[in-house]
Write a structure and sequence with these properties.
α4 (about 70-90) packs parallel to α6 (about 120-145). The chain has about 250 residues and is mainly alpha-helical. The longest helix is centred in the last third of the chain and has 35 residues, at about 210-245. The protein has 9 helices and no strands. The radius of gyration is 19 Å and the shape is globular. Helix content is about 80%, strand content about 0%. The chain has helices at about 5-25, 45-55, 55-65, 70-90, 90-115, 120-145, 150-175, 185-205, 210-245. It has one domain (about 40-245): Four Helix Bundle (Hemerythrin (Met), subunit A).
Length: about 250
C-alpha cells in the first residue's frame, strides 16, 4: 500500500475517534449551526461543528503565542503556492496535503480574528483576496502539469468557475444580497481536490492508468459544479434584486 494511503488512513482513524468523543459532549448531541456562521458545508453542520471543536487545542496554542490572523492569511497563500508547485511536478499526494493544510490555516485565521476581537472589514477583504491567490496558484500548477489540449481547457474552466463562485457572492453582498447557495463552495472544492489528489495515484495504479487521469476526471466535476453554482447564484441574486426593487 502506498505511503500516502497509510497516512490518510491514520488521519481518518484519528478523526473518527475524535468524532466519537465529540458526540458524547453536549454540543456533539446537537446538529444545528453551532458556529452561527450560516452557509452550507460539504458534510453538514455537525461535521463542521466537530472540526471547530477538534482544532481548539491548536487555536489555544496560537493564542498563547500571540499569533495574528495575518500570519495564517500568509500561510494559506504559501501552502497554496506549495500545492501548485507539487502539482506542476506531478506529486499529487503532496499537493493534496498542502491544499488541506491551507484549508486549516484559513479556518484558524477566522477563529483567531474572532477570538481576539480583531474582526474588521479590512481583514475580511484581505482574507478573501489572498484566498483567491492561493486558489490561483493551485490551478496554475495543475495547468503546468497537464500542459495542453482538453485537459488544459478543463483546468481553465475549473479556475474560472471557482473565481466566479466567489465573485457572484461578493458582488451580491455588495448590493445587499447574501447568497451562499450552491454545491461547489470553497470548502467543497478544497476537500474534493485535496482528498482526490491524495487518492489519484492509487486509483490510477488499480486500473493501470496514468496517475493524472483520476484527478482530471475529478477536476471535470469541479469545473461543471463551479460553473453550475455560478449560474445558479446569478439567477438567484438577479431574482432577489428584482423582487427588492418591486417591493
Amino acid at each position: 500500500m502506498r505511503s500516502e494511503i497509510w497516512g490518510l488512513l491514520a488521519v481518518v482513524a484519528v478523526a473518527l475517534m475524535s468524532m466519537l468523543a465529540y458526540r458524547l459532549t453536549p454540543a456533539g448531541k446537537r446538529s444545528g449551526d453551532e458556529t452561527r456562521r450560516g452557509g452550507s458545508f460539504a458534510l453538514g453542520f455537525w461535521v463542521r461543528n466537530w472540526f471547530y471543536w477538534f482544532i481548539r487545542p491548536v487555536k489555544a496554542v496560537c493564542f498563547a503565542l500571540g499569533l495574528s490572523p495575518f500570519v495564517f492569511n500568509v500561510l494559506g497563500v504559501v501552502l497554496g503556492a506549495a500545492a501548485g508547485w507539487f502539482f506542476a511536478r506531478g506529486e499529487f499526494p503532496l499537493g493534496g496535503a498542502m491544499i488541506l493544510l491551507s484549508g486549516v490555516a484559513d479556518v484558524l485565521d477566522g477563529e483567531i480574528a474572532r477570538g481576539r476581537d480583531l474582526v474588521s472589514d479590512a481583514g475580511a477583504f484581505l482574507d478573501s483576496t489572498l484566498d483567491r491567490f492561493a486558489e490561483l496558484a493551485v490551478f496554475v500548477g495543475l495547468a503546468w502539469y497537464y500542459g495542453e489540449g482538453w485537459p488544459l481547457l478543463i483546468i481553465m474552466l475549473g479556475l474560472g468557475g471557482s473565481l466566479m463562485v466567489s465573485y457572484t457572492r461578493a458582488r451580491g453582498e455588495g448590493l445587499g444580497i447574501s447568497c451562499k447557495a450552491g454545491v461547489m463552495q470553497r470548502a467543497e472544492r478544497m476537500l474534493m481536490l485535496g482528498f482526490g489528489s491524495i487518492l489519484s495515484p492509487t486509483v490510477a495504479d488499480a486500473f493501470g492508468r496514468d496517475p493524472g487521469l483520476p484527478l482530471l476526471i475529478l477536476l471535470t466535476f469541479i469545473a461543471m459544479g463551479t460553473l453550475g453554482t455560478s449560474l445558479y447564484r446569478i439567477r438567484w441574486i438577479t431574482k432577489a434584486l428584482d423582487e427588492r426593487k418591486a417591493s
